[in-house]
Amino acid sequence: MSQHGSREDRLDTDVVVVGAGPVGLMLAGELRLGGAAVTVLDRGEAPAPRPRACALHTRTMEILDGRGLLGPRGTPPREMRGHFGRWAASSGADVRRRLELRGVTVTEEHVEAEALGPEGTVRLRGRYLVGCDGVRSTVRRLTGARFPGRVLFAGDAARRRVPAGGRALDLGLQDAVNLGWKLAAAVRGWAPPGLLDSYDTERREAGRRVPATIRAQPHQPHLPPGRGTGTDPPRALLGARIPHARLVTPWGPVMTTTAMLRPGRGLLLDLVGNPALRCAARPWADRVAFVTARPEPGAPPGPLHGTGAVLVRPDGHIVWTAPDRSGAALPRALLRWFGVAGQGPQALTGIED
Questions:
Q1: What pTM was estimated for this model as a whole?
Q2: Which neighbouring-strand residues pair with 309?
Q3: Which residues make beta-bridge pairs with 115?
Q4: What is the spatial distance between Cα 24 and Cα 113, in angstroms, rounded to a whole number?
Q5: What is the mean pLDDT of the chain?
């Protein structure tokens, strides 16, 4: 994206991402899903081969499934950088290699990255810059290990040491999915107050929970990603990731809840056919897809059984539920997570739009 005017007021992109590892490339794809222009800088010449990711945890596998990034049998990608690189490039991200970051300049309105490449110095201006360049982050070094306003960090660059238990890639990919839609919302101008700040708050808490999760792992049953046993006791849905379920939509074929997340927008899932929800959601149609669905015929009661509707963030977290046909507090939740609704009538869109 560029703006008219002199060099001083022109932007080359919305977001500059430093580091073309799995986290940086995942973030680039998420930003593109949210409608932000993104340029990725990496000092390497080509994607470095990586071993097959065999130890990704259930939450990460759910995320990858929600973006269509798993293999045909639900297997993780064998070669992480190339896999995510192809996804980021196909989404429209500009990935530039053989560029080593040498300087970062932060102002109140933009960030400028200066990098050295084979043809000399390259300068890029963006609204934000995200360091995804590892535990020895050059971005962190150049910015004095601070978190200046328009510079953010994800993955190992956001942490002072690599998490124990092989969780670094899990946490990094989860950082990218949490941050991507929020930063895109800020770029596009509809982010509600506090939305971007919630990235730091939520991911810090996730990092604090890792040691306890590692200690508990030997005592937890292994389940395929996103699946439940069907006999688990009821659990509160609010704040949790949307559980895997097979649902019948008006378009005919059975869809999974994870597949419904693939457009990268919010999701209002109506499970009882409540016309009031459709009316309430209409002003947010550019940010939230509305879907009426029913459980697959003959399927046993699942984790969504008894729920009237759920509002889901683009990263898969449920932020509002209705136990029946009630739509109480839905507009408040839409405002809290998806900002002020657009002006004028808008067509209500679904998953396939």
A1: 0.86
A2: 270, 322
A3: 101, 122
A4: 16
A5: 83
